[in-house]
Write a structure and sequence with these properties.
Blueprint (H helix, E strand, L loop, with lengths): L1 H15 L1 H20 L1 H31 L1 H21 L12
Helix pairs in contact: 1-4, 2-3
GO biological process, one term: positive regulation of triglyceride storage
Pfam families: Perilipin (PF03036)
Keywords: Lipid droplet
């Protein structure tokens, strides 16, 4: 379980970058609008969401013993990922802007 806490810091940093966060929100809004306005696609999307949720749940549950053994290596990868993010954020300041403000 500690894997998710350590790996989450790099993942959380990436998903909280304003550029990526706003781009995700735009795509999410378009997806939700499509589901709401096209009944046939809504059914297909709902089935796909259910299948994806079950698949992810199965993979995470089955992989937990392996993840526990790899915890030190995963923490090291997370540390390097965070250092890489530090450099990216320093060299690419537009990552701190929402998608609609990047030119």
């Amino acid at each position: 379980m500690l894997f998710f806490l350590s790996a989450a810091s790099a993942v959380n940093r990436v998903t909280s970058l304003p550029l990526l966060n706003s781009a995700f929100n735009l795509v999410s809004s378009a997806y939700n609008y499509t589901k709401e306005t096209h009944p046939y696609l809504s059914g297909v999307c709902s089935v796909a969401e259910t299948v994806a949720a079950v698949a992810v749940g199965s993979v995470v549950g089955g992989a937990q013993p392996i993840l526990n053994q790899l915890e030190p290596q995963i923490a090291l990868v997370n540390e390097y990922a965070c250092k890489g993010l530090d450099q990216l954020e320093e060299n690419l300041p537009f990552l701190q802007q929402p998608a609609d403000k990047v030119k």
